Amino acid sequence: MRLRLAICVLFSPPALGLAAEIxxxxxxxALSAALAKAADGDxxxxxxxxxxxxxxxxxxxxxxxxxxxxxxxxxxxxAVTVTGPDVVVRGLTIQGSGSSHETIDSGVQLxxxxxxxxxxxxxxxxxxxxxxxxxxxDALVSGNTIRGRRDHRMNDRxxxxxxxxxxxxxxxxxxxxxxxxxxxxxxxxxxxxxxNIFRDLRFAVHYMYANRSEVSGNVSIGNDLGYAIMFSDRxxxxGNVSIGxxxxxxxxxxxxxxxxxxxxxxxxxxxxxFMYNAHRNHVAGNRFEGCGIGIHFTAGSERNEVSENAFIxxxxxxxxxxxxxxxxxxxxxxxxxSDFAAYDVNGDGVADAPYRPNDSMDHIxxxxxxxxxxxxxxxxxxxxxxxxxxxxxxPGGVVDSHPLMRPVEIDVPDPGPDPxxxxxx
Length: 425
Prior knowledge:
The chain is mostly beta strands. It has 4 helices and 38 strands. The strands form 3 sheets. It has a 24-stranded parallel beta sheet that branches. The longest helix has 12 residues. It is elongated, with a radius of gyration of 27 Å. The protein starts with a helix and ends in a 26-residue tail after the last strand.
């Protein structure tokens, strides 16, 4: 019996493995004082009120603001810096970071030693950067409301979430407004960015050198540019929405072997999708509607599969200048074109004639905009009729041999009420 008791004591977990709950009352420096006494795994429950403090979390602890506590930092550096593993920060309003881009002053900064941090259900107000995931592995940033600054030019502001060399990071269900870019990713991989809402920003999502990642289910409203994927490969851009983004809904710049599927881009002032030097990508099941240009692809973008998309009411459906033909249908299924008077005798859902979105006059107008003055002239109309009657006269470009009779339908999710007056930035 004594031997069994000795073995049980020897192999039982240490006392510090039992998490304690620590009640913390508001006050200047009160939170740092409570942290100094906390053991690994402890939960610090903050009573409602204002905590004027700057935190460094270097071991596994949970800071729980309960949705009614505010951490107000001193205006220098980051309000919360996480350097230890398995830290959780939740239910807290965080404000008062510094203004240095050099040190990436943030509401919450996650360093390379901060493994598996969780930043959940917080409100981050007026910080230079909202959350900086700077080398931390397997970080989760979820359910936060992030309102950036508006006291500088947009390009001089910080990002809502900045991701650098942070494999395994998941950024989801956040509401991000103001600042510079919603999510800016640089030199990272194996990340997931999903179900976020972006408003009044430069770019909703800005990708640079970020491979094997996913951008899905996000909503971008009224930004300069929706989803900018650059210098990356094997990226899944799926199920996103872009409404009223000025320059591009989706941009692929030096992007290869990626999937652009099931996205809705509507009412963009310029381009729904811009492809620049983008190769071997799969573009399918998207709805491009009401933009200046449906798809503009250039700079030698080749071997892309483009099928089962809907091009609806764009002023120019496709802009592509080339002397070679590019086929936009796959396995007998092309795309839907709102300006194509198609017919389908056998009722299989595929038009019985091919569609060519551009003719030689389009090429002339792109290279010589002043020629628009001649659009109504009999000579131009004769050229257009001749090319429609005799396709051999066409100069090359896109051909859809199997146009679809019906467009893909994509619902617009409800982004919630306009938050313009919910918090001052």
